[in-house]
């Protein structure tokens, strides 16, 4: 009689463990799917035409008024894919690599304007090497190039 009860108790424990594992797998799958969806959404936003305009406007207005012209320090930019992440304050954070030189970079944040829904840039900062080049350009000197 006791062995029948032990066998019955073992089956119940096995069913409980199987149910807990099944719930854990489902919850884990949902978390991974949400993360992947968010990554895909952030990637789409960062590579949108609207974000390109925000990046270009920011680079011209805040860093190099001659950017993207033959007289500017900043000739091109690209998004560092590995730097894209969700901001805990909302929006997207990342890094723009300038002129294909990893020593020259600008931090960016993208957020939506609550009233218009349009993307806006904010925050930021730049690498010391880019700052030095921009400072030399403003003084009218052509300092040593950073490679």
Give the topology, please.
Layout: H1 2-46, H2 49-63, E1 77-79, E2 85-86, E3 92-98, E4 101-112, E5 119-126, H3 128-139
Antiparallel strand pairs: 1-3, 2-3, 3-4, 4-5
Plain-language structure description:
By secondary structure, this protein is α+β, with helices and mostly antiparallel strands. It has three helices and five strands, in the order ααβββββα. It has helices at 2-46, 49-63, 128-139; strands at 77-79, 85-86, 92-98, 101-112, 119-126. Strands 1, 2, 3, 4 and 5 form a five-stranded antiparallel β-sheet that branches. The chain starts with a helix and ends in an 8-residue tail after the last helix.
Tell me the structural class.
Answer: alpha+beta
Mean pLDDT: 88
Q: What are the segments in which pLDDT stays under 50 over at least 5 consecutive residues?
A: 143-147
Oligomer: single chain
Secondary-structure element order, as H and E?
HHEEEEEH
């Amino acid at each position: 009689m006791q062995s029948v009860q032990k066998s019955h108790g073992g089956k119940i424990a096995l069913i409980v463990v199987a149910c807990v594992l099944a719930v854990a797998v489902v919850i884990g799958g949902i978390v991974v799917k949400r993360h992947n969806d968010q990554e895909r959404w952030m990637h789409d936003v960062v590579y949108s035409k609207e974000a390109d305009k925000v990046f270009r406007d920011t680079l011209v207005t805040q860093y190099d008024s001659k950017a993207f012209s033959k007289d500017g320090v900043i000739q091109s930019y690209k998004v560092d894919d590995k730097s894209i992440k969700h901001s805990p304050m909302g929006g997207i954070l990342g890094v723009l690599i300038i002129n294909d030189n990893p020593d020259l970079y600008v931090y960016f944040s993208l957020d939506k304007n609550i009233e218009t829904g349009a993307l806006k840039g904010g925050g930021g900062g730049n690498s010391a090497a880019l700052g030095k080049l921009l400072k030399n350009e403003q003084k009218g000197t052509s300092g040593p190039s950073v490679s």
